[in-house]
Amino acid sequence: MWRKGFMGVSQTIDKDISTYSQLTIKAKIKIIYSSLRSDGNRGGVYPMTIRMDYIDDQGKTHSWEHGLLYPSRINYPEKGKQIERNIWHTYTSANLMELSHSPCKIKKIQLLGQGWAFHSRITGVELIGK
């Protein structure tokens, strides 16, 4: 019996970024396999997701995440992106300081895979702030 699940790694950052005007996440990502043919009913099922948990200037906790999968149906393009299968891609996020709830402090970064069966790789993850 197959069960949907997820796996990944997490790193606590705990960094004040309130003086930054730019913040991006960059990584090299390769999606090898995913049994799912879309990003799910709520847009969160990807063989690779980069997630950042942060605190805004009001002290409220928020999460930003962006998922990647190879050509399938994207139901939530604001949450995910298609990349070609079995090829290394360089991913660079938009300026995360321009989120509707602008980050003031990064709590942690997570690199996650989710689905029924999936195989993905990620390397060279960078958090770049100016």
Mean pLDDT: 89
CATH topology: Jelly Rolls
Query: Strand fraction band?
Result: over 45%
CATH C-level class: Mainly Beta
Shape by Cα distribution = globular
Distance between the termini: 48 Å
- If classified by CATH, what would the architecture be? Sandwich
Per DSSP E runs of 2 or more residues, the count of β-strands stands at 8
How many discrete structural domains? 1
Radius of gyration: 15 Å
Query: What is the element string, with H for helices and E for strands?
Result: EEEEEEEE
Broad structural category: mainly beta
Helical content stands at: under 10%
Task: Name the strands of the widest sheet in spatial order.
Answer: 1-7-3-4-5
Poorly predicted runs of 5 or more residues: none
Question: Count of helical segments?
Answer: 0
The biggest beta sheet, please?
Answer: 5 strands, mixed
What does this structure look like?
The protein has no helices and eight strands. It has 130 residues and is mainly beta. The protein has one domain (5-129): Jelly Rolls (Sandwich), CATH 2.60.120. It has a five-stranded mixed sheet with strand order 1-7-3-4-5, with no helix packed on it. The chain is globular. The N and C termini lie far apart (48 Å). The model has no long low-confidence stretch (mean pLDDT 89).
Quick structural gist:
This protein is mainly beta and 130 residues long. Helices cover 0% and strands 57% of the residues. The protein contains no helices and 8 strands.
